[in-house]
C-alpha cells in the first residue's frame, strides 16, 4: 500500500513537471524573515539562450496572509550586456475586492506569476542582470514602506511564447 502511494506521488510530480516545457529560466530568491526592506534589491544574472527568438518575462512572488495590501508596486531594472539599462515602475493587483489573495496555492502561501514584458528578444550577446525592488507606499504617506511584510520569495521567469512550440 505504501509503495503504491509513493509511486502515485512520483507519477504526479513528473506529470506536473513535464507540463512546463515553455520554461527557459525560473529562479526564486528568499526574502529574509518575510520582510522585504525597501533598499533590498533582489538580483538575477541571466544568460539568454539566443539572440533571435522572442521570450515572455515574468516576476514571480510568493506571499503569505501577512501581506496587508491589495496591490504591489515594484521597480524592475534590466541591465543589458553592453551598458544599456531599462527601468520600469510596475503595479500589480494582489487581492480581489473582498480581500482574497490572487495567485495559486493552498493554505496561506500564494504564488503569483506577474507579467513583466512580452516578446522580448535578447539581441545583445552576454549576461543580463534583472534587479527587483519593492516600492510600496501607504495612502497619504510620502515615505515608502520600509519593511514590506508577507513577501517570502521573489523570482524571475523566462518562457518561450506558446507560438514557438507549435
Characterise this structure.
The chain has 166 residues and is mostly beta strands. The protein has one helix at residues 2-18, and strands at residues 23-30, 35-37, 42-46, 54-63, 71-79, 85-93, 110-121, 128-134, 147-149, 151-159. The strands form 3 sheets. It has a 4-stranded antiparallel beta sheet, with no helix packed on it. It has a 4-stranded antiparallel beta sheet with strand order 3-8-5-6, with no helix packed on it. Strands 2-9 form a two-stranded antiparallel ribbon.
State the gist of this model.
The N and C termini lie far apart (41 Å).
Class per helix and strand makeup: mainly beta
Q: Which bin fits the share of residues in helices?
A: 10-25%
Number of helices: 1
Major sheet description: 4 strands, antiparallel
Q: What is the end-to-end distance? A: 41 Å
Radius of gyration: 18 Å
Number of strands: 10
The CATH topology assignment is Jelly Rolls
Quote the average pLDDT.
Answer: 88
SSE pattern, N- to C-terminal: HEEEEEEEEEE
- The low-confidence parts are 14-18
**How many domains, as an integer?**
1
Amino acid at each position: 500500500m505504501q509503495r503504491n502511494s509513493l509511486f502515485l506521488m512520483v507519477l504526479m510530480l513528473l506529470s506536473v513537471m513535464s507540463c512546463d516545457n515553455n520554461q527557459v529560466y525560473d529562479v526564486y530568491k528568499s526574502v529574509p524573515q518575510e520582510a522585504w526592506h525597501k533598499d533590498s534589491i533582489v538580483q538575477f544574472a541571466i544568460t539568454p539562450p539566443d539572440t533571435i527568438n522572442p521570450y515572455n518575462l515574468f516576476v514571480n512572488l510568493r506571499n503569505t496572509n501577512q501581506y496587508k495590501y491589495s496591490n504591489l508596486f515594484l521597480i524592475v531594472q534590466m541591465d543589458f550586456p553592453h551598458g544599456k539599462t531599462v527601468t520600469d515602475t510596475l503595479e500589480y493587483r494582489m487581492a480581489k475586492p473582498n480581500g482574497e489573495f490572487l495567485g495559486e496555492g493552498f493554505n496561506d502561501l500564494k504564488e503569483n506569476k506577474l507579467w513583466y514584458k512580452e516578446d522580448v528578444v535578447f539581441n545583445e550577446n552576454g549576461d543580463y542582470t534583472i534587479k527587483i525592488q519593492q516600492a510600496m507606499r501607504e495612502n497619504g504617506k510620502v515615505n515608502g514602506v520600509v519593511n514590506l511584510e508577507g513577501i517570502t520569495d521573489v523570482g524571475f521567469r523566462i518562457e518561450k511564447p506558446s507560438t514557438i512550440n507549435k
